[in-house]
């Protein structure tokens, strides 16, 4: 084989020396503010503000469910999930041998089974179950799909590989017919096994980026996100391949827009204000949400959100915070309930004297969405959000984060963000 | 400041030793095929097959333009572009002082000015120019926009930073009104200065990923794409920050779909078959196209394309190969004319016995697009493409790359691609 080994095109240059960039001059004020927030968050008396999760299931929290009535999935190891699949198969065989046909008990993910648990401050599933019976004509097909998905999951877990939902669909198009069928059953199988959907090694796609003060191992490769150039590192769809997370960051900056991420990455904002910068480029995918949740859990540092000042920006922020109802069985791994809204808030438009020409008129669609959001319990319950959203609705003006460019292209990293952080101006 | 310096949360683990993964057993056959192709490509007698560029301007090539009648931009250094902007300003001042108002001569990017140069095998712009006169009422606004954009470009070049098109728009919303106005003028300014649009330091956004056997410096950070875990490295929007590219890859695998990239990255396909794997996740952005063009130019290795077998996949491949008409003044930096179509080709459906249920019926829209493409000179000129597309239109079947999952999730990396490469089955 030696004759066929490719020869290097050119000698690799020696790795450049690590840059030593000092913190910003006002970093001590910023760090004091951020550390105060962190200390406050660590106290049992800390109030996060009204929960967004509570609102999702309709305002007032239900009476807390007894622990044995809560259906909540756990992170499980690959062999444990495999064993679960084998148990399902054995159980099917037993039922068939006993002449009972076969039936799956599937945890119900219906709205009526979603409860807000105040102590956990999350939506949890109750233990209602529905049955899926192969000998029932109306359920036979779905039962077959469920069984086939279990078999496929068992195969990929055995190989230790990950696949996409689309790959899964394509292994048996004839049976699944439509991808939504196999996608839906995936969530069923996860709740049945009591594991997260990611534990099934089936992923959607990745679109998140990370740059800044965090290091980790990814599938054994050592990744240092302070040395990822100006483009940063792609957040992998397989979060379980990330281990050994270390960081000297004091906060996480969660950015809605790609363009803002690019600005902060090029300016290497994280050198001057020790942070980790993350974006999912708009609507967040599961991998980015999980990555954020893990960083928050492992590092215990505050998360600051930077979103457009419009109803859509608010919606995206709410997905990071409360997640989607459909994935409520795994809310623990997907949501970061305590994100501080740093900017751009509707009140910023006047406070930062945003020029008239950078304020955009809200469209009819925007106004409609804004009005609907004002009715939503999850906004209603949060006085500061109501205040901000009311300002937006009264002025009928919205603004993108990039509108700050009117003060200079680097204004956001040299003035806006440092001032916000120094003043602790988050809600 | 020492009191405020963040303290590491945890000791960084020692970097793991470099994995030594041997090449695949059949790698010698594959490398022989690929090297033969590379050697053939290096010969002056090498025929790339009918040019797609020729077709873009309508079939037969024009008589070659004399060199002094070709308007082609060059990669220019930051100070050189700054100097150009200063010259424009001086020229304006001179005209105004002389009482002539002021006028810009702008290279025409109209279709009538696009010529196919056979020796270059690219579309080039002729030296037709239009004038933009500030004292002409109908041209005053556009002239003002042009001047303002020049001023802003001069500013960002002076700071040595990059901005997005959206940022540029937001610096003067009142003047630009619509982003398409400032975007369009950017191309004008680039052609006027004779530099690429990227030289203006204005970028769109990044969405490309790269993994595999390539190393480079990105803004001084040493990046090794064989050690980027399973997610890979984000291709930065600022390609000029990439320097010192080295590689021991023998070919580049250009992948349409994110999901296929993820499969190959997790399988670390590049260890067994020495290659670089790139995706732009669908329709390619400028940064990914530039990155591919640079890799091809600097490394001189063949590019293999892996696309869906449908009219849309063909369209995406054509963007990598021929680019967009609008950017024809910079076709040299954006197009990779010689991409080999590896798969999935319509003829693969039968040759690889793709199960019936994985073949999708073409929609009316697909059939219409396919019919239109068969009329396009750029397809017509290429007999092998006509053959493939005719097969598609006759069977009225399409297939996504993921359809290969029906043979097993890793079939693409263990069987399909190795066989294709061993047999030199590309067109």
Automatic annotation (TrEMBL), chains A, B:
Task: Identify the EC number(s).
Answer: 5.6.2.2
**InterPro entries listed in its UniProt record:** Spo11/TopoVI_A, Spo11/TopoVI_A_N, Spo11/TopoVI_A_sf, TopoVI_A, TOPRIM_Topo6A/Spo11, WH-like_DNA-bd_sf
Topoisomerase 6 subunit A/Spo11 TOPRIM domain location is: 251-421
User: Which stretches of sequence are listed as region Disordered?
Assistant: 1-25
For activity, the cofactor(s) needed are: Mg(2+)
Q: Does the keyword RNA-binding apply?
A: no
Residues annotated as catalytic:
170
SUPFAM superfamilies in UniProt: DNA topoisomerase IV, alpha subunit
**In the UniProt record, does the keyword DNA-binding occur?**
yes
Tell me which residues make up the Spo11/DNA topoisomerase VI subunit A N-terminal domain.
Answer: 141-202
Instruction: State the CDD domains in the record.
Output: TOPRIM_TopoIIB_SPO
Looking up Pfam families in the UniProt record yields: TOP6A-Spo11_Toprim, TP6A_N
Q: Keywords in UniProt for this one? A: DNA-binding, Isomerase, Magnesium, Metal-binding, Topoisomerase
* Basic residues bias: start-end ranges: 9-20
Write out the catalysed reaction. ATP-dependent breakage, passage and rejoining of double-stranded DNA
Q: Which family does it belong to?
A: Belongs to the TOP6A family.
Give the HAMAP family listed for this entry.
Answer: Top6A
Give the protein's recorded name. Answer: DNA topoisomerase (ATP-hydrolyzing)
